[in-house]
Amino acid sequence: MRLLIGFCILGLSWLTLVKTEPHKVVCYFGSWAVYRPGNGKIDISKLDPSLCTHMIYTFVGITDAGEVKVLDPWADLPDNGGKAGFQKFNALRKRHPGMKTLVAIGGWNEGSQKYSRVAGKPALRSHFAENAVDFVLKYKFDGLDIDWEYPNQRGGKPADVRNFVLLLKELRARFDEHNLILTAAVAAAEVSASLSYNIPSISKYLDFINIMTYDFHGSWDHITGHNTPLYPAKRETTAVSRGLNVNASVNYWLNHGVPARKLVLGTALYGRTFTLSNSRKYTPGSAASGPGRAGQYTRQPGMLGYNEICEQQSHSTWITAWDVEQRVPYAHYGDQWVSFDNVKSITEKANYVKKMGLGGAMVWSIETDDFGGVCGNKYPLLNALNRVLRVQ
Ligand SMILES: *[C@@H]1O[C@H](CO)[C@@H](O)[C@H](O)[C@H]1NC(C)=O
Fold first, then answer.
1. Known catalytic residues?
2. Binding-site residues, ligand 1, Cβ < 6 A
3. How far is the CA of 230 from the centre of ligand 1 (A)?
4. Distance CA 66, CA 5 (A)
5. What pLDDT, in 10s, does the model give residues 139-174?
6. Is 146 strand, coil or helix?
7. Model's pTM, two decimal places?
8. Which residue among 213, 230, 244, 251 has the greatest number of ligand 1 atoms within 8 angstroms of its CB, and so is best to mutate?
9. Residues 65-99: pLDDT tens digits?
């Protein structure tokens, strides 16, 4: 009996411990989805905030003077009949108290050079830190996510690596005065991350780090390949190609000094598409002549939202296969080929988060899940992450 009670107390305290450190489910939101047609169009106030611990609005930009800049005033702000995206997004917290909202600065289209210049000058760094706090408070976000893609790349310079740390240090000090959250989205694979980051130093100043473990392969490769493989393929033999997967990237970051609980694993609610050179050669690693055809909502060759993939699969005879080695599905239809994530592969990634003791999972991005339930239950992929990471 005494043993049993002892065991129960131990069990209880273990439960309490687990409870105080819940996994994160971080949901990026691409605000341009408000312009999509038909089933692809998003109404921000109808997003489901209960599926995310954090939601991140993308993107705002930076000026040469080191100030945060609204990139799409009509979508983001209420002025002149605007759509008031920031307001609607932050109002989601009312429906799910405890959920935190951040705004992301940067992204691919912002490039690297302006960030490099601002981070390189002490006066611009502190002006930016001050301005960023004002911006976050003014629009009532809980924090800022830095998406500089990437320090010391795309027109940046070697000093960016150190300057990025100094920029985060300055931001951290200001953010602490107001209890704000500071995060960053980072390049995943060693081949890119090793150019850009002093991992122990950035980890010190960030609350958590969203590792962009996707876009490992795409039509730029000229052969079919997976967007988010968990592990390498046997046919991949070079050091670089063996690094282009989730497991290699996560281990690179862990071995270089990020605390596991600060690392939030990126998952993709979209696929990478290809046009096959020969419709009968469709295994991963087959020749591709270019990107796949654009989707009806995202309207961009070379990618499809999961919502588009599931809709297309319900209308025509796509053939789906499972890659046992790399733990992801792919599908083909005529000369079209897509690598993507489904409930099974997302569930394996969530289990990987647990196995590796990571802080949680991140999705890019919530508006390409099947949010409308067009193919079945609503948010099938985001729900799969929640089932593993948030429901005990
Ligand atoms: C994951 O990566 C680690 C470190 O490189 C390696 O030891 C392990 O075997 C990998 N796991 C699989 C299943 O490939």
1. 149
2. 231, 247, 251
3. 10
4. 60
5. 999 999 999 999 999 999 999 999 999 999 999 999
6. strand
7. 0.95
8. 251
9. 999 999 999 999 999 999 999 999 999 999 999 99
